[in-house]
Predict the structure.
Amino acid sequence: MISVISTIFFIYILLKIYISVMQIGYISQEIQKEPFLMSRTQYIEAGRYAISKERLEIVSSIFEYGLFLFWIDGGLKALNYTLQIEDELTKSTLFVLGFIFVNSLIQLPIEVYRKFVIDERFGFNRSTLKLYIEDKFKELLLTIFIGTPIIGGIIYFISSFQLWWLWSFFAIFGVVVFLNMVYPTLIVPIFNKLSPLEDSELKKRIEELLAKTGFESQGVFSIDASKRDSRLNAYFGGFGKSKRVILFDTLIEKLQPIELIAVLGHELGHFKHGDIYKNIAMVGLLLFLVFYGIGHIPTELFSELGLPNSSYVLLSFALLFVSVISFFMLPIFGLISRYNEFQADKFGSELSGNSIYLQEALKKLVTENKSFPKAHPLYIFFYYTHPPISERLKALEKWRN
């Protein structure tokens, strides 16, 4: 059984590395050609940034495989031996939290290098080491605060029900929905300062746009994203009455008001088409597959690992393999997401009456975020949640006429 699991994980890692290698080769050739959407200097820099990220992704994949081998070749057994605790609930909770902590600690150098070397080199990182450490500490506390009752609940289901995996799925899915509901009001303020939009004219235009589409929210807010990163973004967060319109201060700084309205029109397209609920449903499908898988793990696996058939080992395997399952689901999720993005573009164009403003906004987003405008087809197939920028601009030009 171990050999089968190891083979599946090896194929997953090998495929990730292959896609990155193909993407690096593709971009290396493309940056020698005539630039698209950008100046020659911007085009080359965006290409180099994309190549740097993919090279690090290869290293990250190798780290991930090494970490997998560590856990199945004695790491889980060592952690089990270290926690000599009789109470099953306490031991299980500490085991899973320890598993998460060790994974985060081992992968930390990759994350630090990405932020303080690559992002720094290309002008994105604005975070200080002090702020980064504060963020990690907050993330740790949130993991403990949210993770402890979740782990305890799953352990209860495992010990109480034959179809524990199904009940666990429903419980975790409920937690996902709840966290999405409270994210803009409870989670975001822990890390960022949210301020009501100061530009009264822009705020008025946004509120008119929201009213036009029947979008009820708690308000329009600016977030101080620039203290960590220079990239541009905006999103709608929450469900029901907790919904908020959140604009990165970097986006407000770089886009003209009419372009910002066009971007929000696109986002409102997602709202009108129920894309948030579709995304939640896809997450639900992923969770169902994960819990179904760990609920049907053959018992001989535990004896091969030298571990007890316990709740904490099951949960650790779920965390090990959630990335594998989600990776092979990416093409399906990506296909649905890219279709939704086209429809949101169309809605935003019809809402504003002219697609030219969204076209200009997209061009600025690509340039400011140093997003290389081309990609290998295999990379698009697996990783693109948005259509390639060339296809989006072509469709917007068609809807413009």
The chain has 14 helices and four strands.
